[in-house]
Predict the 3D structure of the following.
Amino acid sequence: MNERDSEAVAAQLVAKGYSLAKTESAADVVLLNTCSVRDFAEQKAINKMRNLIGTAKKDRPDQILGYLGCMAQSRGKELIEKLPDVDLVLGTQKFHRAAEYIDEIISGKREKIVDIEAEAKSEATIREHLLNGSAKTSVSAFVSIMQGCNQYCTFCIVPYTRGEERSRTIPDIVAECRELVARGVREVTLLGQIVTSFGKREKRNEWQAAGGQTGSSPVTRHPSPHSPFVQLLDAVHEIEGLERIRFTSPHPKGYGDDLAEAYARLPKLCESAHIPLQSGSDRILKLMHRGYTRERFLGIIEKLRRAKPNIGITTDIIVGFPGETEEDFEQTLSLCREVQFDNAYIFKYSQRRDTPAADMPDQVPQPIREERNHRLLELVNEIAARKYDGFIGRQVQILVEGPSKKNAARYTGRTRCNRIVLFDGSARHQGQLMDVKIERTGSFTLYGDPAIVGV
């Protein structure tokens, strides 16, 4: 999501005549888009800014430095008080104001700008796409469909930095996707903090405006039996020239029967799902305010694999949440063994200020968090390696994205279940759907033999 926000800000600046600088030292403007999910991310952003002040801005005193995003939202003016050389602090509903404010600072109209106020309809302002920063078209693009979060997990600062859920309209999103396809995009990834909550707040408001009462039968103007998110998937699926649809990041509570069935019903919807688990213990899930149980999570996995047996499933897990015992952690390990995730992003619990979990008793000591992180990572890697080895000798379809970042002689693409494939190719392959036979594996990477690549 931060990557998408950054791209939109860069595209807005390019549209106003700015160009992308090759280095920080050569730039007239440097903006850091920040994250507040973990303390480590905030400290990294502060240290990065200090380095910029001590190097690039030292040689270029007129260079403009700014913070964007979640840390900017939560700390606001405090950032300029702490680092007086910072010129701009923009909150999460103000990305679209960046170019305007930079012009004001450069022209001398304003010296320092801090804007973290809420703004109506900000969810519809992240529309611009840079597409790799040049005239060359990208194959895949992110599309922001909503902002905010209403879940209020006890460990998470996001609802306080991103605000309540606010969704764009389906016609507006479809129009953006059509524009991207016209520019050569073949795959879109729909983005939201809890993407499966798309349209629920608006649907509830519509129902209330139509006279619905809490506890009564809902009055709705939606003729479809599907949730708003599945209705959006149906609409995007109709776009001619679009080959693939992905989405991230959902919440287990959003996986109703209609979404599971959509995987089997919509050919363009890729069979991959990133479903944050966070813990395998019902006791910890309740403390986290996650709203589901271990049994419910396993039921979702069963439904998805029934709809698409080869679906790729990844997850997020937090270790060392306050009060987590060895027994709780063992339940997480056992669930991972049962589900056999293709990969998992593991986070050591990080206290975030103003969140309920930060003040919970029985904070887990850091050495125990480290040890549990190591044990879980070993298990996840072991399962993933075995599953990747299972691809050897198989033929898979990939969408070729372009040259590898590490080796320009190799090209990279992704399978429908979201595994990276490298092969020896050329520019003519970019944007193509290709069948590749997998010859070997690396660390979370598959390799196709160029002699067996079919176009």
